[in-house]
Amino acid sequence: MYRLYTHNDLDGVGCGIIAKIAFGKDVEVRYNSVMGLDHQIEKLFENEKNLKDDFLIITDLSVNDENLIRLDDLEKSGGKVRLIDHHKTALHFNDYSWGRVKVQYDDGRLTAATSLLYEYLLEHKLIKSSLALDEFVELVRQYDTWEWDQNENIKAKNLNDLFFMVSIEEFEEKMTERIINSDHFEFDDFEQKLLEMEEEKIERYVRRKKREIVQTFIGEFCAGIVHAESYHSELGNELGKDFPHLDYIAILNLGGKKISFRTIHDHVDVSAVAGKFGGGGHAKASGCSMGKDAYKLFVQDIFPLDPMRQDAFRNKYNNKSSMQGSLYENKKGDKFFIFAAGENDWILEMNGKPIREPYQNFQQAENFIKRKYQAWLVHDDIYVEFLKRFYIKTKN
Ligand SMILES: [Mn+2]
Question: Radius of gyration of the chain from Cα atoms?
């Protein structure tokens, strides 16, 4: 018999679905949280005396050192073990004959556990490929690696939304049956309608959270901090894009005592940020439990701070990246004016005086005043008044 221990997110459950398609009733699938796996593996070794007769596969998760030794002993004594994963924190499992960890394909695309397991089963002729199966695996891969965002592959995002709307069991059963019985992988009309409603709900949620985000420096990084129980990926992505001056977004779930870290930037590795608090993950998405230190830094210390002020929107005149100038203000009432002297020559004035060297582009100048002064883009009326009173006067 096959035994699959896998993660309880879309990528992990994707592995379960593929295993069900490949092995049918001959596989037992267990879904685990990151924290829960080691205990389950320990229990398995305690309770099952004939593990040698089984084929044990672990996907999308890795095990601690004690379980690593258990697995290695099992394989060495004639059992069958595979650990198939795509997290770079699991690369050391490749030192073992049963480890299959790969982060990236040769062409630069990122791997997912689902795509790695699928390819493993294809290679060993344990599964038959089909168009619907190929499509499903690719949707999961694009979602898990976040490549869907760049490719604007909404279907991949919808698949994950659907995953969260139903139970794991229902999702597994429905998707397995659909892949087996269809030429292409598609949502049905009812799911389509549900997904539209969900999309609107997420939009409203993100908009609300934009008004609650707090900015602070933690260590060397400028972080945006927000409390939220759901939609962490959407929040991380939307808030990250809306506030490009922030190095990363920390999303706090106090009830679950967890923090998620997300970044859209290449200069930040949030798996290292989470690692400082005993967590881990990917460069662009990671998480940790909220221990005492993390609680103090991310909750207690920032509690007295006000949320970031929103940039004015629907302005006709005072817009970002405008060569004629964009006007910002901070809480103290300082005025910041960014304008272009040439195409790669942006000047930043604070209260009428140039500060620092010219910037190569608008974004660098905006990053500076947002990180240091938490300034926001002001409404048109203030902008027009400013131009009348200061700008025209001083330039004359
Ligand atoms: Mn994964």
Answer: 25
Distance CA 373, CA 359 (A): 17
Ligand 1 mean position, distance from CA 284 (Å): 13
Continuous segment of H or E residues that includes residue 250: strand 248-253
pTM: 0.76
In the three-class reduction of DSSP (H, G, I as helix; E, B as strand; rest coil), residue 194 is classed as helix
Instruction: Classify domain 2-187 by CATH architecture.
Output: Alpha-Beta Complex (3.90)
Separation of CA 109 and ligand 1 centre (Å): 14
Contact 6, 16 (CB under 8 A): yes
Q: Where are the domains of the chain?
A: 2-187, 212-300, 326-395
Q: Distance of alpha carbon 247 from its chain centroid, rounded?
A: 14
Please tell me the distance between residue 17's alpha carbon and the centre of ligand 1 in angstroms: 14
Q: Which uninterrupted H or E stretch holds 368?
A: helix 362-373
pLDDT tens-digit map of 224-270: 999 999 999 899 999 999 999 999 999 999 999 999 999 999 999 99
Cβ atoms < 10 Å from Cβ of 365 = 26
Distance 334 CA to ligand 1 centre (A): 46
CA of 306 to the centre of ligand 1 (A): 36
Q: How far is the CA of 11 from the centre of ligand 1 (A)?
A: 5
CA of 22 to the centre of ligand 1 (A): 20
In eight-state DSSP terms, residue 372 is: H
Alpha carbons within 13 angstroms on the beta-carbon side of residue 213 total 28
Class of domain 212-300: alpha beta
Q: What is the pLDDT of residues 178-190, one digit of tens each?
A: 999 999 999 999 9
Residues written for the chain: 396
Instruction: Give, as residue ranges, everything with CB less than 5 Å from ion ligand 1.
Output: 11, 60, 113, 144
